[in-house]
# Entry
Amino acid sequence: MSTVATWPLFEQMLTRFRELETMLADPEVAVDRVRYTKLAREHGALIRKVRPYQDYLAVVADIDATRELLDAGDDMRAEAERELETLEARRAELMGRLEEFLLAGEDDFDSIIVEIRGGTGGDEAALFAGDLFTMYSYYARERNWQIETISFSPGEAGGYKEIVFSVTGEGAYQYLRYESGGHRVQRVPSTETQGRIHTTAATVAVLPEPDETQIEVRDQDIEWERMRAGGAGGQHVNKTESAVRIWYKKGTPDEVEVKCQDERSQHKNYDRAMRILRSRLYERNQQRIHARRADARRSLIGSGDRSDRIRTYNFPQNRLTDHRINLTLYKLDSIITGEMGDLFQALRDHDRRQRLEQAVTN
# Structure
């Protein structure tokens, strides 16, 4: 009996990989530099996932052939048992690599854009949004990731009404992808004179940052204008039109609008706005795909719906509760300063189990 388990996602990748190899060998494609570059990039992105899967298929075929030798003579059987032990160890190693690819999802990004917005709660919500930004900043520095602030709107008492920033580093998306959703905080605000616990909220959106070949934005699909920046900024804000607003109007009744004003250079503001726009368009495309796969994905925790309440931070009890996996940790003081390893590992383990149940059929 065959030990091969089919992995539908990797079978689809393998089919696409072979299609790309055929297209890249086509002389008509080779002379179209734009198309060839796009196809070559997709081909390169698939190699590191397809090659381990091809190795896995070869190993399990060798396992089947070796098991047939177990019924042979004693000398042959002993050799087959030693070979089988080696092959099964190799299969376990390859399955671990494939599981990691499944955990990462259909795409893997080393650069993401994170948007944090204070919800209901006024000043306290802005302070909580600031705490979340600080938490992610500490964790990013611990992993040697780079953070770049793209835009922000400060709260009147501190923190942020809204902050948008990028995180760049190996594995950034694999770990932070679980943060999309509603975050709730329960604590006594610094302005509370009677010691009452208030409940406020913030929303987080984690958006993979695609490059220009992954999400194409044509000039005819957008409108943009230069404008004066609002808010604090001194004489520069009042006298120059460096802020940029971009509207994307293609393919949706609800246009996508992005505004950037935090750089003194209009060119830099435009570039930053386009980065945010591409990320939001990618997220919108993924949501459409996920909607078509809703039944298959309903139980997965990486869907990224920012309207869902995913976590509660209870400061009086030093407690963090992740509602998606019913996990409670009584070390909020450590987590809020960036010690998120145990939390993320629990989320990754839970996600891995669910993805494997849905991705592997015998």
